[in-house]
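S.,

Sequence below, as promised.
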Amino acid sequence: MQTSQTLAPETRLSDAISDAWDGTDTNEQAADNLLAAMRRDPALYALAMAPVEREVALRLTAEHKRQRRAYIWSRPAQPDNRVIALARSNAVTVLDMRLPSGKRLGDARRDDVMDAAQSYNQAAKYHASKGRFFAAVARKLKGTRCVADVWTAAALEALRHE
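The prediction came back faster than expected:
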C-alpha cells in the first residue's frame, strides 16, 4: 500500500484535490479545504504552487510597476505642500518611472527609450483596435439586448478580424 508521500506527484495532488471536495458543495469550500491541506503539508504546497509561482511573481512585479507608473503620471502638475512633502520623503520623480524593460527612465539610453516608445505605441494600436471592435459590436445592440442575442460567435470572429 502506498502512502501519500510515495504516490506520484500528480496522483498525490489529484488525491488532495479530490479530498478537498469531500463534503463540500461549492468551489470556495473546496478551495478552503485544499488550502488548509497545503498549509499542513509543505510538500503538497510545493506540488500545487510550482507550476504557477513564476506567473504569480511576474503578475506581482508587473502590477507594482504599473502602480508606480500610474502614481508618477497621476500626481498634480502644480504640487501643493502635501505633495511636496510626500515627494521629498519618497524622492520619486519621472526619472524613477520604469520602462517596459524594467529599467529606470533616468538610467535609460536612447535605444531603451525608443524600445519603450515602440512598446507603448504597439499597445495603443492594440487597444485602439479593441476599442473599434467593441464600438462596432455596440452599434448593433438596441435597448437592453445582450450581445449573444444579436451576434453569433462566427460573426464576432469575422468582425474581430476585419
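The longest helix spans residues 110-139.

Coffee later?
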